[in-house]
Amino acid sequence: MKLNTLSPAPGSKKTRLRVGRGASAGQGKTCGRGVKGQRARKGGYHKVGFEGGQMPLQRRLPKRGFTNIFKKQWIEISLAKIESNFNAGDDVTPEILHERGLIKKAKHDLVILGNGDVSKALNISAHRFTKTAKDKIEKAGGTITEIKKAAAAAA
Questions:
Q1: Backbone phi and psi for residue 124, each to the nearest 5 degrees, phi listed first
Q2: Residues of the chain with pLDDT > 70: what percent?
Q3: Once rounded to an integer, what is the mean pLDDT over residues 103-130?
Q4: Between vectors from CA 83 to CA 79 and to CA 84, what angle results, nearest 5°?
Q5: Kind plus residue range of the DSSP H or E element containing 81
Q6: Fold for domain 74-146?
């Protein structure tokens, strides 16, 4: 193989369309842009959603809903997950759950859900427990500690 014999693969190179070169070329006179109007002009395109100065649809429609910035967010974890990842007598806190990769960052409040069964006595600390979760933990001989958030210091 020699450098002077190299050539691109067949069909990989396409010649550009030469517009405005006469009627017989198929793209003469108006060059495929039609007659007059914004799209026929040089630089004659507009941003997405522009309707020629008319009030755009997304501004004409009524807006619905809002995002509540004070919404309480909870991290939920089931008893089944706790049961399979802890031994009898272990302490279960949001920090330990985070270290073991069972929950993401423990910045939101933790809720223990009653899905699954508990056969071990565990000491579980969380911000909230469902009624079935409380019953199951206490039947297994475990203890429940509800974590209370410290109120903001009054100035």
A1: -105, 130
A2: 95
A3: 89
A4: 125
A5: helix 79-85
A6: Ribosomal Protein L15; Chain: K; domain 2 (3.100.10)
Q: Where are the beta strands (DSSP E) in 102-142?
A: 109-113, 123-126, 128-129
pLDDT at site 155: 47
Global pTM exceeds 0.70: no
Smallest CA-to-CA distance from 115 within 76, 89, 144 is with: 76
* Residue 142: exposure state from Cβ atoms within 10 A (0-12, 13-18, ≥19): buried
Answer yes or no: is pLDDT of 105 > 80. Answer: no
The residue-averaged pLDDT of 113-130 equals 92
| The residue type at 149 | K
Q: Give the separation between CA 38 and CA 50, rounded to whole angstroms.
A: 12
